């Protein structure tokens, strides 16, 4: 599954917005970023928040990039990562003053929802990229009910819910749960697109997904969620996506 398998375009606005199901988006994202990097001729790439499970840790697959670095706020998470990869500890929600106009590609997976200052994060991404570079991010979106609950309830209660709905995850060691804020993580509404444009980016692609698997242990709710997903795939509502992958370009 690669760059052309994500979603069909259903709306255009200086770029493209498409919709698909969660499994297609989740399973295809790593290959999507990889194929996009190859098409763009990427030589310098940074994976943001890659922590214990960096995608670019696969040197054989990502060998075309001369410079690969994983940036994360947690030295402990970076220490868990496997592969021969450069790592750097940095708070991406604080202004970064070095390496501006340096990278061809910055990307993240399941990071953006954990950022307390989304504007500073995306401004950092804009500054670090060379003109024409890409900033690509995969994240869960409000206003899907489990994420609204995760945002509102105390972290201790959220951990208990995760342990119930995803048994064994918290014991795996490299699949920890972190506090979530869900700032700038919605579906492709006009307001959301304007936010990214306000930093200076062009919104080149926005792939929204419907559905989630958080109810799989509660069969009646899971059946309702699957029915809702089928309906929304036929009648998309931007505000009701559950996950997204966005491609932002710094103007050349």
TrEMBL record:
Entry's Gene Ontology molecular function annotations: S-adenosylmethionine-dependent methyltransferase activity
Pfam families in alphabetical order: Methyltransf_11 (PF08241)
SUPFAM superfamilies: S-adenosyl-L-methionine-dependent methyltransferases (SSF53335)
InterPro entries per record: Methyltransf_11, SAM-dependent_MTases_sf
GO term, biological process aspect, one: methylation
Keyword field contains Transcription regulation: no
Domain of life: Bacteria
Record key words, sorted: Methyltransferase, Transferase
Domain Methyltransferase type per the UniProt entry, residue ranges: 48-134
Keyword tRNA processing: no
This protein's name: Methyltransferase domain-containing protein
């Amino acid at each position: 599954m690669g760059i052309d398998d994500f979603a069909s375009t259903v709306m255009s606005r200086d770029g493209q917005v498409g919709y698909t199901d969660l499994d297609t988006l989740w399973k295809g994202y790593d290959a999507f970023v990889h194929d996009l990097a190859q098409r763009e001729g990427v030589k310098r790439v940074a994976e943001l928040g890659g922590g214990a499970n960096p995608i670019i840790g696969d040197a054989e697959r990502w060998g075309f990039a001369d410079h690969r670095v994983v940036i994360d706020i947690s030295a402990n998470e970076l220490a868990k990562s496997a592969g021969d990869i450069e790592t750097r500890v940095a708070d991406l929600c604080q202004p970064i003053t070095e390496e501006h106009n340096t990278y061809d590609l910055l990307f993240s997976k399941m990071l953006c929802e954990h950022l307390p200052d989304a504007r500073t994060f995306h401004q950092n991404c804009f500054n670090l990229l060379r003109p024409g570079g890409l900033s690509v991010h995969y994240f869960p979106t409000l206003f899907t009910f489990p994420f609204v609950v995760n945002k509102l309830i105390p972290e201790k209660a959220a951990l208990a819910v995760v342990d119930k709905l995803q048994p064994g995850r918290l014991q795996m060691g490299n699949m920890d749960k972190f506090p979530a804020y869900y700032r700038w993580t919605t579906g492709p509404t006009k307001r959301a697109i304007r936010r990214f444009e306000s930093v200076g980016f062009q919104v080149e692609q926005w792939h929204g997904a419907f559905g989630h698997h958080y109810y799989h242990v509660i069969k009646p709710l899971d059946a309702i969620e699957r029915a809702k997903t089928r309906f929304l795939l036929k009648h998309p509502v931007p505000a009701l996506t559950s996950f997204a992958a966005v491609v932002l370009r710094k103007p050349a």
